[in-house]
Amino acid sequence: MSPSSHQAILLVDGYNIIGDWSDLKQSRDRHGLEAARYELVECLINYSAAVAYRTKVVFDAHYQDTPRSSEIHTSALSVHYTAFAETADTYIEKFCATFARKKYQQESTRLIVATSDRAQQLTVVGYGAEWLSAPMLEREVGLAVQKTKSKTKKQTKRKPPGRFLFNTLDPAAQKRLKQMRQGM
Question: What's the rounded Cα separation, in Å, for the pair 7 and 125?
Answer without folding.
Answer: 18
